[in-house]
Amino acid sequence: MTLKNKTSDYFYELPEELIAQTPVEPRDHSSMLVLDRETGKTQHKHFYDVSDYLKPGDCLILNDSRVLPARIFGTKKDTGAHVEFLLLKCVGNNRWETLVKPGRKAKVGAEFVFSPGVLEGKITDVLEDGNRIIDFSCEGNFYTILEELGKMPLPPYITAELKDQERYQTVYSHELGSAAAPTAGLHFTKELLKKIEEKGVKIGYVTLHVGLGTFRPVKAENITEHKMHSEHYHLPKETADLINETKKNGGRVIAVGTTSCRTLESVATFNDGKILESDGWTSIFIYPGYEFKVLDGLITNFHLPESTLIMLVSAFAGYEHVMAAYKEAVEKRYRFFSFGDAMLII
């Protein structure tokens, strides 16, 4: 088998009107392309049909990370200039790595007011990639203040305004910390999850806080030269026990989203193939040639051309199968990216 290591191998033509701007209502009425990873055969369903493909004894692993309202707007103390900050990750007590627009107004030492007497900040470092480290000082709980002042950071390809902020959160989101939603989970309703559990499918949770690096394009011509961003994950003991029990009894482990997949595969990679309670940072890059250690199935959305995520999916289901399925999805007018339709690979 020839491995596809050129970034351009993962390009596909996508008409702009197929980039979903708004979520489908209800959540589970989005379309779902079912791909058999052995044969490459496809079926066309709705997401609410997903339980038909799950068996008693399987387990579904969901990422319970919650998106921070991470866009905040500040005024520069000495000039009154307006500056937008996007919080990327917490690197200390009320200290954050941020993306700043316009960056030239945020040199080391610059001070900003986000809400007088409530939230202020000072730039303490400029990183190699241009991101800024800002130390916040606040009156009260930082996250509570952020909920009041911040806006949801939608991906750059979504230009429509989001009327209900909760539609960019999964119904099971719990742990605040992501700069973008783990979007495969957006299709689930509480009722659908209950139906799945009643079928005898166990549900487990991991946390991986999604960084904006997930949207960073692959600029290297050869994908093996691409440097992945690092993201924080946590796999609790009860989830580790559930996965091990499922495997022991011959059930399948199905990850909801590439973030859940990367968490499971990272833990197994770091622990000689074993799944155990873990907490840490991962920059795992999964592309064709990778041998999966945990996954038996994957629920995911349709990803950007030439992205690390379409490479991950190609590693799991086979390059030819995936690229053919994407071509079919375009022909059948599926909706793409964060608010788009789903794909079940099994």
Please indicate the count of domains.
2
What best-fitting shape do the alpha-carbon axes yield?
globular
Give the DSSP E fraction (strand runs of 2 or more residues). Answer: 25-35%
**How helical, in percent, are the residues?**
10-25%
Strand order of the largest sheet: 2-1-17-16-14-3-12-13-15
Note the total helix count: 6
pLDDT averaged over residues: 95
Order of helices and strands: EEEEEEEEEEHEHEEHEHEEHHE
Give the second-level CATH assignment, the architecture of the largest domain.
3-Layer(aba) Sandwich
Poorly predicted regions: none
Distance between the termini: 21 Å
Could you characterize the architecture of this molecule?
By secondary structure, this protein is α/β, with parallel strands linked by helices. It has 2 domains: 7-67 and 164-345, QueA-like (3-Layer(aba) Sandwich), CATH 3.40.1780; 71-149, Beta Barrel (Thrombin, subunit H), CATH 2.40.10.240. The chain contains 6 helices and 17 strands. The strands form 3 sheets. Strands 2-1-17-16-14-3-12-13-15 form a 9-stranded mixed beta sheet. A 6-stranded antiparallel beta barrel has the order 5-6-7-10-9-8. β6 and β7 (95-101) form a beta hairpin. α5 (308-317) packs across α6. The longest helix is centred in the last third of the chain and has 13 residues, at 258-270. The radius of gyration is 21 Å and the shape is globular.
Descriptors:
346 residues; alpha/beta; QueA-like; Thrombin, subunit H; six-stranded antiparallel barrel; 6 helices; globular
